[in-house]
Protein 1
Amino acid sequence: MDTVGWGVMGAARIAEIAVIPALRQARNARLVAIASRALPRAQEAARRLGIPKAYGSYEALLDDPEVQAVYIPLPNALHREWTLRSAAAGKHVLCEKPLALSAEDCEAMISGCRRQGVTLMEAFMYRFHPRTERALQIAASGEIGEVRLVRAEFTFAVRTPRGNIRFDPALGGGALFDVGCYAVNLCRAVLGEPREALAFACTGPTGVDEVTGGLLRFDDRRLAVLDCALTLPRRQEYEIVGTEGTLRVPAPDAFLPGTADTELRVTRAADSRIVRFSGTDQYQRMVEHFGDALAGRPLALPPEDAVGNLRVLGALHASVRRGAPVSIA
Ligand SMILES: NC(=O)c1ccc[n+]([C@@H]2O[C@H](COP(=O)([O-])OP(=O)(O)OC[C@H]3O[C@@H](n4cnc5c(N)ncnc54)[C@H](OP(=O)(O)O)[C@@H]3O)[C@@H](O)[C@H]2O)c1
C-alpha cells in the first residue's frame, strides 16, 4: 500500500487543528472523507479543510471502499466500539489516546483487529518526535548512569469546561485519561512496567479527576512521580534521573512542541550539554509511520503498549478511590 486512503471519524477539534493538516502533508496519505453525526457539520468541515467527501454517519464512512484507514478522534468512551466496528469493516485504525478505558477493553480491541487482519495503533504522536526518540535512546545508553527516577508532568487549563468531553465521566473524561496518559507512557517507556501505583486526586463538580498526583514503584530502586491537570496552567516537562546525571525535556512543551525547534539538556556533574532538534510535525511523522506499517514496515508503537498504559492508569484510578497503593498485576 503506497498511499493510504484515510477517513476521519468525527469533526473533532484535534482532527481539525493537527491530524487533518498532517494527513494533507504526509507523503503516503490521501484524505478521502470525513464523517460527523451531523451531515452539515461534516460538509462544512470538508469544505473548509478541502476533504473530497462528507458523510452524516460514521457507518457511512466505514461503507466507503476508498477508505482504507480511519483516524478515530472520538471521546475516549467510544474508542472501543468504533475501533471494533472499523475493524469489522476491514479498515485499519489509528485511534486517539487513551486507546480504551481499561486494559480489558484494549485487549478486546487488539484481538478484534487481529481477527480482521487490520492494523491498530494508539495516536501517541509525541513518541514520533525525534526529541522523544533521542531522550529514550540517551536514557537507555547509560550516559546518565542507571535510571532510578522519572518525573513527568502535563497540566493545562480547559478554557470552557462546560460541554467539554474532558469533564464528562460518561465519556471517559478526567485528567489522568486525558493527559496523565502521556506521563504514564513516558515513565513506562523509560522504566518498563511498574509494580505498584499510588495516587491522590482533586475531583471536580462533574465527578472527574481535575488534578491528580501519582507515584509509581517499579522495584526497590526505581520510582516515577507524575502529575496532570485540566485546570492548571500549561506545564509539560519531564526529567529522567540516573545515578550519573539527568536528562531534562523542558517546559512548557515536552509533549506538544508544535513545529518549532526544540532541545533537551543532559547534565553530568558540572558538565551540561544541550541537544537541539529542528522543527518538525510529530503528527505528520506519526501518520507517515502508520502508512509505512501498512506497507509492511514494523509498527514502532504496537497496541499491546496501550494495554500496559491502561493497566497503570487503571491502578492509579483505583488508588484514588481506595486512598491506598494498588499493586499492578
Ligand atoms: N493527540 C493529541 O494531541 C490529542 C489532543 C487532544 C485530544 N486528543 C484525543 O482526541 C479525542 C478527541 O478530543 P477532542 O479534544 O478533539 O474532542 P472534541 O473536539 O470534543 O471532538 C470529539 C468528537 O467526537 C464526536 N462525538 C461522538 N459522540 C460524541 C459525544 N457523545 N459527545 C461529544 N462528541 C462526540 C464529535 O464529532 P461529530 O459530532 O462531528 O460526530 C466530536 O467533534 C480524545 O480521545 C482525546 O483524548 C488527542
Protein 2
Amino acid sequence: MINNTKQKPLSRVDPQVFGLLKKELERQRRGLEMIPSESYVSPAVLQAMGSIFTDKYSEGYPGKRYYGGQTNTDKLESLAIKRAKKIFGVSHVNVQPYSGSPANLAVYFALLEPGDKFMGLDLRQGGHLTHGWKVNFSSKFYRSIPYGVGKDGYIDFDQLRQQAKKERPKLIWAGATAYPREYDYKSFAEIAQEVGAFFAADIAHVIGLIIAGVHASPVGHADVITSTTHKTLRGPRAGIILCDGQPSNPLKPAPKISKEYLPTLIDRAIFPGLQGGPHEHTIAGIAVALKEAQTKDFAKSNQMIVKTAKIIAQKLLEEGFNLVSGGTDNHLILMDATNKGLSGQEAENRLEKVGISVNKNAVPGDPRPPYSPSGIRLGTPCLVIRGMAEKEAKIIGGVISDVLNNHKNPAILAKNKRIMRDLCAKFPLYPGLKID
Ligand SMILES: Cc1ncc(COP(=O)(O)O)c(C=O)c1O
C-alpha cells in the first residue's frame, strides 16, 4: 500500500521523473525565459498546488456539491473567489476553468448558440486560437469573423466598427496573445453596445499589469472577463472568469441568455456544461497567487515588467529591428526578423544558443505560414521576477541585437553566451528550492 508506507522521496520512487524534474530546474536556472506567456510561481504557490487537495473530488460549487467531505474545499474555493472579487471589484467569479482555453470555451457555451457569429482578433494579427482561428473549436462550432490591426499595428477601431455593423455578431472579444499595446476597452464596449453584442475581454496576458494598476481594467466595460492564471498573475496553469449580474444558481434550469443572468450562465457552462470535478489543488494555488498579487512587491514588479520591455524595445529599434507597432506598452515585444534576413524560427534558434528562450510568432500581414512565421515574441515577466531591472534590460537588449545582427560570428556568440550565463548566475532562480 503505497500511501501507507513512510514518505519516500521522488528520487527513490521514480528516478526517471525525478531526473527530468532536476534537469528542467537546471535548464530554467541556467537560461533566461523570455516567452511572454511564461512566469515563475512562488514556492508558496508550488506548495499549494502540489498538495493533498489533489485527492478531493468536489463537483459543483461551494455549498452546492455533489460529493461529501467538502468542509475545507468549500472554504478554499470561497477564499479564492473572495480574493478575486476584491481585487477586481466584480460580484461574481468562477475559479474552476482548467485553463484559459476552457474558460473561453465556457463563454461561447454560455452566450452563443452553435453557428452564431462572433468577432475576435485574427490569430495572424496577434489573436489567440480560441478567438476564432480556423482549426479551433471556436471556428468549427461558431462563425468566426476575424478583425485585424491597422498598418500601424494598433487595433483599427473604425474598421472593427464597420465590420461589426455589417456582420452583427453576438459576441466581440478583446485580448490577444501577441499584441504589444494597451487595450482600449471602452471603445470595444461602445461598438459591442452599438450592435447589441456581448463584450468579452480576455486578459490572460495582461492580468498582472491590470491588478498592479499599470494598465486600465476592463471591469465596467466588459460583460465577461476571462484570464489564465499562469501568465502575469504568476499562479498555477488554470483559468478564471469574472462577471457581474444576479447571484448565480447553477442548479436551476438554464435562464435566458441575458446580461442579468451572466453568473448562472457562466457557472452552468463550466459545470455541468464542460467540466466535471474542479482541480482544488490548482484552486489552492490560485488563492495563494491572488493573495500575493495584492502586495506592493507585485505592483512594483509589474511596473518594472513594462519598463524593462520598453528599454529592450528601444535598444532593438536603435539597432534597426522592425518591431510591430514601433514598440510596446506592455510586457511583450513582437519583432519581424525578416529585415535582418532571419525567419522567426532562425531568430529563436540563434537566441537559444546564448540561453535566451523566445518563441517564433506570426506578425500582422505575415506572408509566411504559421508554422514558419516571420517574427518572434519576447517578454520580460520572467527576468523581472528573477530580480532583474533597468540595468539588466539594457544588457539583454544588447545581447539580443548583437546575436541577431552577428549570428554568423562564433566569437560574438561565445561572448554573449558568457554574458547571459553570468547574468543568470547573478539572479538565481528558486534559490532555496530543494527537490529530493
Ligand atoms: C489571450 C489568451 N487567451 C487564452 C489563452 C489560453 O490559455 P491556455 O493555454 O491556458 O489554454 C492564451 C494562451 O496563450 C492566451 O494568450
